[in-house]
């Protein structure tokens, strides 16, 4: 399943690597595409969105929106601790 995250705080290639590595710690087979200009991170993974969001948050970035590519559901809200 592909999940798109809107992420704030990314400004350079180090940020891209940090987000990618954080996601791959939870799913080493994940396909991660980061668009630095728009702040979008598309992830093809078997992990649930909340797990991936928590990984991005733990890396020090703020997820401001999540869109599930399978259903196009969008959740907007402040970053916070995963349940």
Automatic annotation (TrEMBL):
Keywords: Metal-binding
Keyword Zinc carried by entry: no
Domain HMA: 1-64
NAD listed as a keyword: no
PROSITE patterns: HMA_1, HMA_2
InterPro entries linked to this entry: Heavy-metal-associated_CS (IPR017969), HMA_dom (IPR006121), HMA_dom_sf (IPR036163)
Protein name: Heavy-metal-associated domain-containing protein
Organism: Paraburkholderia dipogonis
